[in-house]
């Protein structure tokens, strides 16, 4: 027969019930807070694709003057094809237009002349076999790009970012000056890349620098021959779409000529540090610093939940801060 009185059993039962109630209450509170965190994360993940999505119109201005052999022109077309294969091509991301020039201008692929990436790649491939002749009227081609191609009538999108890649094997002839026309593009917030090919530009590249946006170390590209253009695919792709990494083609021959390019600014003054860092890297550094400075502030923690909750909240705060900054960056741009 048990010697524990009914009163003692009742008292012990009350204590156990009270203890379970306290534990369950803390657990419920913890679950509520964690649920709210997950709701915040879900909401941010939902808008993250919009934050990372960049609507950009890309125009290639390709030299087809008489100094370029047709097989070399085909290699330039192959380069554009290889770059485009890595890009996200649709109305919510990138669209590509291609024009060729010599003594005249010709719009070969307009922004609205295809409906998907497959069609675009086919149109690019069809440019092989183009007859090359005439002079190198680079300034006229850049002017034509701004006045005709980058218009809604040719499928350019209002409010889209703009990147223009000028590909040439020699100095321009005649007027207007390509540097002046490139400045006009920049006045409309376009990023202008100059891509020089061959020995005619390796020693004297002042015109290439004048065409390229600053810093020249980022926007000026060079190879010693058309066959080496494939080496530039991994360099150009992330500059057009920052979240895409391209790999070097396995059969791409290495350029034996190391061009000693002088990247001194031809436009606004830049510090040495700025000239050697990509604009995207400067943005990334700024975001990282802001996350480090704000993650603790954005992490309200119940002290009863221990150190694991602190780590969880800091990671959530970092994610929230980074996503918000990316979202704001795209809105402001």
Task: Quickly give the structural class.
Answer: alpha/beta
Radius of gyration: 29 Å
Biggest sheet architecture:
6 strands, mixed
Distance between the termini: 83 Å
Note the quaternary state here: single chain
Percent helix, as a range, is 40-55%
- Low-confidence runs: 269-277, 290-314
The main sheet orders its strands as: 3-2-1-4-5-6
Q: How confident is the prediction overall: mean pLDDT?
A: 78
The number of helical runs is: 12
How many distinct beta strands? 6
* Inertia-based shape: elongated
Strand content: 5-15%
Could you give the order of the helices and strands? HEHEEHHEHEHHHEHHHH
What does this structure look like?
Keywords: Membrane, Transmembrane, Transmembrane helix. This is VWFA domain-containing protein. The protein has helices at 6-52, 70-86, 117-125, 138-149, 178-187, 199-202, 206-211, 216-219, 233-240, 272-275, 279-294, 307-332; strands spanning 56-63, 94-101, 105-109, 161-168, 190-197, 220-223. The N and C termini lie far apart (83 Å). 49% of the residues lie in helices and 12% in strands.
Task: Compile the SSE list and pairings.
Blueprint: H1 6-52, E1 56-63, H2 70-86, E2 94-101, E3 105-109, H3 117-125, H4 138-149, E4 161-168, H5 178-187, E5 190-197, H6 199-202, H7 206-211, H8 216-219, E6 220-223, H9 233-240, H10 272-275, H11 279-294, H12 307-332
């Amino acid at each position: 027969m048990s010697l524990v009185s009914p009163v003692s059993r009742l008292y012990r039962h009350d204590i156990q019930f009270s203890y379970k109630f306290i534990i369950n209450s803390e657990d419920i509170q913890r679950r509520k807070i964690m649920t709210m965190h997950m709701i915040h994360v879900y909401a941010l993940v939902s808008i993250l694709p919009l934050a990372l999505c960049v609507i950009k119109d890309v125009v290639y201005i390709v030299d087809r003057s008489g100094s370029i052999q047709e097989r070399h022109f085909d290699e330039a077309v192959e380069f554009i094809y290889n770059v485009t294969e890595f890009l996200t091509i649709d109305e919510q991301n990138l669209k590509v237009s291609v024009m060729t020039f010599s003594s005249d201008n010709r719009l070969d692929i307009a922004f609205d002349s295809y409906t998907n990436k497959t069609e675009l790649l086919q149109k690019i491939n069809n440019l092989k076999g183009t007859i090359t002749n005439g002079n190198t009227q680079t300034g006229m081609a850049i002017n034509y790009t701004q006045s005709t191609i980058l218009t809604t009538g040719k499928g350019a999108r209002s409010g889209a970012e703009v990147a223009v890649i000028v590909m040439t094997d020699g100095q321009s002839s005649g007027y207007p000056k390509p540097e002046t026309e490139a400045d006009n593009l920049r006045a409309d917030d376009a990023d202008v890349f100059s891509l020089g090919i061959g020995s005619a530009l390796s020693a004297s590249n002042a015109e290439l620098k004048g065409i390229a946006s600053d810093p020249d170390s980022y926007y000026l590209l060079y190879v010693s021959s058309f066959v080496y253009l494939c080496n530039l695919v991994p360099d150009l792709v992330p500059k057009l779409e920052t979240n895409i990494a391209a790999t070097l083609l396995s059969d791409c021959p290495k350029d034996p000529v190391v061009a000693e390019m002088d990247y001194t600014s031809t436009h606004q003054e830049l510090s040495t540090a700025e000239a050697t860092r990509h604009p995207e890297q400067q943005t990334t550094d700024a975001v990282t610093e802001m996350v480090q400075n704000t993650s603790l502030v954005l992490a309200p923690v119940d002290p009863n939940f221990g150190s694991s909750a602190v780590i969880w909240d800091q990671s959530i705060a970092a994610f929230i801060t980074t996503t918000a900054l990316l979202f704001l960056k795209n809105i402001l741009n």
